[in-house]
Amino acid sequence: MLADTPVAVAPLRRAVSTLVQFVCAALVAALVAAVGLFAFDRVQWPAFNSSNVTQAVTTVMQFAALAVLGLSIYLLRRRRWVTGARVLSWAALSGLVTATLGMPLAATRLYLHGISVDQEFRTQFLTRLTDSAALRDMNYADLPSFYPAGWFWIGGRVANLLGMDGWEAFKPYAIGSLAVAAVVALVLWSELVRSDLAVLAATATTLVVLAYGSPEPYGAVIAVLVAPALVLAWGGFLPATRGGRGRQGWGAVVGTGLFLGLAATFYTLYLGIAAFAVTVMAVVAAYLARRATGSWRTVLPVLVRLVVMASIAVLVALIVWAPFVFDVLGGNPPSESGTATHYLPDAGARLPLPMFHMSLIGLLSLLGTVWLVGRASSSHRAQALGLGVIAVYLWYLASMALTAVGNTLLAFRLEVILLVLLAAAGAFAFVDFSRWISLATSENPRVRRVLVAVGALGALAFTQNIPQVLGSEITVAYTDTDGAGERADQRPAGAASYYAEVDDVLLSQLGAERDDHVVLTADTSFLAYYPYFGFQALTSHYANPLAEFSARAAAIEEWSELSSPGELLAAWEELPWRAPDAVVFRQGAEGYTLRLAEDVYPNDPNVRRYTVTFPKELFDDPRFTVTEVGPFVVVTATDEPA
Fold first, then answer.
1. SS3 state at 628
2. Within 13 Å and on the Cβ side, how many CA atoms surround 205?
3. Can you give the pLDDT at residue 297?
4. What is the secondary structure of 489-517 as a DSSP string?
5. Sign of the dihedral defined by the CA atoms of residues 393, 394, 396, 397, in that order
6. Which of 125, 164, 243, 274, CA to CA, is 20 to 30 A from 518?
7. Residue 442 above 80 pLDDT?
8. How many Cα atoms sit within 13 Å of 447 on the Cβ side?
9. Cα separations (Å) of 520 from 120, 173, 535, 584?
10. Cα(563)–Cα(163) distance, rounded to whole angstroms?
């Protein structure tokens, strides 16, 4: 319920009011992000990795945003101009996100980490869904999407509406969606705690996500919502622990189900940890209900609430998962389990203990940890966040245990979730500890001013350092070659500068639309810029399990050993998948080369690169057209002799 709304307000009216706030907050955030990014783009800024100018301007904007957030907290605490203060907090928080990410990236058209490694397949997915609204696989033809398409589908539709290429829309969409998610989280916090505390908690968790989760924007928009969503979920279970039989808590049950469904459509791993945390809550709630009444019958309401949450989540998840599920149920089961969870970096082999790091985030985590333990028996917020923290650590332990059977649960990617939960707890801890210190000093106004100053300066210190935390990701955004064939740092562009010519060759020789053709290439960033389908994915870890990644790799190696063009064309005819319409090779000393990848887990790195070389004579036939473009060799196949 709204902290500033009378309890007597009807539930329906309250729900409508909340929905209106969500919509208005999202619109304000989208507008602020759009205006900010447009303004940044109007100025010729120097590259972030070669000048301190953008860092200086970023710091000024961050200071202004934090100052406005501080003003909104003051007004909300004093209950003055409440509506205006809320709108001010939405604008300031979204402005903080826009400045922190948008200004350092103002001189490049690429997002954090450019088009390298994981950002490559993400850009490819956005390009695919910009080209078409159909839930097709990001790479393989004739397959439904296996990767959750929610964030990418929305971004693709926005890019299509604005007439932008997917790669070009990635940066503004990522920043805008994070700004929107931050203010949506703020509104959700406002439904759970006092409005001024909501702004404080939302700001703390947003800053943590910007620093440690923003390179994965589709996951970051879920991460920023996790803490208030878990508090909401615990509120859904609490009535059952007290033997309540009324309607109290059902709004929280529905809201939790919707959040879990949203997570399922955006990021499977975050769905997993959120669902696991909610299940842990249900187990604890069932135990408390049984202890309070002495009867196992009181466990049933807890189970009913959990089932309702799960049912809502499944219905929402099917919005993007239905094509894949129906394809599997229709007789096309995965031929291989996939290797998505075959990765164990050092961060996944030990428990993260940020509360013992000598840093600002370490101090905030320590405050949060002390508060979680100290308030575990008296605060519903502490209970909810504490159970979330416990769930994360249990997930880590399970992931490390699974390494014994050749798999993991990718626990290292949950460190940002842990930091978000501890940051939320730390924000509440700072308020409580400040209150206690103030009371201990007879509410001396000088002590209060000192505490406020320390908190404000700590927030500013952490905020202005975020671009440095993201320094390597920002640098790659300037050193990678974008879809226009340019590097933002004005250095000579890489091989991707020839992609436009490769695309021209393919269109002129193959005709039709790009998504009518399958291209085999090891330079898969080409497929991130142009929506051709690929014959093979970047690595098996992001390949659709229906695509038979290993069998395709074996087939490519077999083709390189054939002795004539006729044998190659015959092999393509016999494929169980759509054959390549074209191959984009690299020039090699002994022929045309493709650099492929295979999973070598449990080694770290978990990918081994190897080169397959095709003899040039294999394409010396009228049915092939060979065109050299810079470092590339484009081979297109025709049905009839030229």
1. strand
2. 35
3. 85
4. TSSPP-GGGGHHHHHHHHHHHH-S-GGG-
5. positive
6. 164
7. no
8. 12
9. 16, 29, 5, 6
10. 46
Cα separation, 71 vs 66, in Å, equals 9
pLDDT score for 8: 41
Q: How confident is the model at residue 49 (pLDDT cuts 50, 70, 90)?
A: confident
Backbone phi, psi, residue 350, to 5°: -150, 155
Q: Encoding tokens for residue 242?
A: 């007290």
Give residue 242's pLDDT band: very low, low, confident or very high (50, 70, 90): low
- Report residue 206 as tokens: 């947003």
Residue of 281 and 297 predicted with greater confidence: 281
Q: For residue 639, what pLDDT band results from cuts at 50, 70 and 90?
A: low
d(CA 552, CA 572): 11
pLDDT, greater one: 471 or 250: 471
SS (H, E, C) 340-386: CCCCCCHHHCCCCCHHHCCCHHHHHHHHHHHHHHHCCCCCHHHHHHH
What b/e readout covers 28-46, taking b as 16+ CB neighbours within 10 angstroms?
bbbebbeebbeebeeeebe
Q: What secondary structure letter does DSSP report for 101?
A: I
The contacts of residue 319 (CB under 8 Å, 6+ apart) are 150, 261, 265
Structure tokens at 147: 């990767």
Are the C-beta atoms of 216 and 409 separated by less than 8 Å?
no
**Contact assessment for residue 606 and residue 548, using Cβ atoms and an 8 Å cutoff:** no
